[in-house]
Design brief:
- The structure is a single chain.
- By secondary structure, this protein is an alpha/beta fold.
- It is 36% helix and 15% strand.
- An 8-stranded mixed β-sheet has the order 2-1-3-4-6-5-8-7, sandwiched between helices.
- α9 (239-246) links the parallel β7 and β8.
- α2 (34-49) packs across α7.
- The longest helix has 16 residues, at 34-49.
- The radius of gyration is 21 Å and the shape is globular.
- Mean pLDDT is 91; it is low at 1-9.
């Protein structure tokens, strides 16, 4: 009976289009914001993979990117500042069959939320973390963020930013993340390819997306001038080579920097551990007894 039901479902399964993943809520970003292009790429990626909307969930933090879940016809949770990774981790552990995204901005990710990155990378939890990096706090009217260049002047920093510019790719490589990539909202074809590969990767995937803020820090021209595709002969399994590309001060390399040959992520490892514990007959009482005072 179960097999027959599955067969019927497969023959009558709907073919999803990108428009099927759009919600009724209209994006309210500023005209020209790079987030529009990523949102469109997100829709098209889900359609390309034919992911069912009820099997996709997005966790977000605070900032312009925090509104993302409202604009997609999938499950979503708009959390607090800097916390999309803990939310996404709980979502994946709670229902491993879900395709889980964490989406944040550069301030959300690399300032208040930076402490969560090493844990997600170390656990190699099977989620896709996308950071829409506009190198500014756009929602709070142009404050310098961790990725704002040193010396950049804004209304909030009229004498220039004091502090060095963070390098997100170097950060994730140093934390031993198993999939590290960089894309650009102005190149949706490459961005879609990276997003598909990240979703299919059975571990923690990170994509930094240059998504300019035309209102407070328009980086379109800078990205256009400095962007280069990662050389086709780059070995994506060589972390040192990836770091060398990420450390180049004159170019912004776009594409896949690094990828482990991961066969299973944290969820699979947890399942294997659970089976081992069951085979050993280990119980909570056994655990408690280890801490009993004699």
């Amino acid at each position: 009976m179960v097999t027959a039901v599955k067969a019927v479902e497969e023959t009558t399964k709907k073919e999803y289009r990108s428009s099927d993943y759009k919600s009724d809520v209209k994006p309210i970003w500023c005209p020209g914001c790079g987030d529009f292009a990523f949102l469109s790429t997100f829709y098209r990626t889900l359609a390309e993979l034919q992911l069912q909307p009820e099997e996709v969930i997005v966790a977000s933090g605070i900032g312009c990117s925090g509104r993302f879940p409202a604009f997609a016809n999938v499950y979503g949770y708009h959390g607090v500042h800097g916390r999309p990774l803990p939310l996404a981790t709980g979502m994946k552990l709670g229902n491993p069959n879900m395709t889980v995204f964490a989406i944040g901005g550069d301030g959300d990710a690399f300032s208040i939320g930076a402490g969560h990155i090493p844990h997600a990378a170390s656990r190699n939890i099977d989620i896709t973390y996308v950071v829409l990096d506009n190198e500014i706090y756009g929602l709070t009217k142009g404050q310098p963020s961790p990725t704002t260049p040193e010396g950049h002047k804004t209304k909030a920093s009229p004498y220039g930013k004091l502090g060095r510019q963070a390098n997100p790719i170097m950060m994730l490589l140093a934390y031993n993340a198993s999939f590290v990539a960089r894309g650009n909202s102005a190149n949706p074809r490459q961005l879609m390819d990276l997003l598909i590969r990240a979703i299919k990767h059975p571990g923690f995937s990170f994509i930094q997306v240059y998504s300019p803020c035309v209102t407070f820090f328009d980086t379109y021209a800078m990205v256009k001038e400095k962007r280069r595709d990662i050389p086709p002969d780059h070995d994506v399994t060589d972390r040192n080579a990836a770091m060398a590309l990420a450390a180049d001060p004159n170019h912004l390399y776009m594409g896949l920097f690094y990828k482990d040959d991961v066969t299973q992520g944290f969820v699979g490892e947890m399942a294997n551990l659970g089976n081992t514990v069951k085979q050993d007959g280990y119980t909570i009482a056994d655990l408690v007894s280890r801490y009993r005072l004699e």
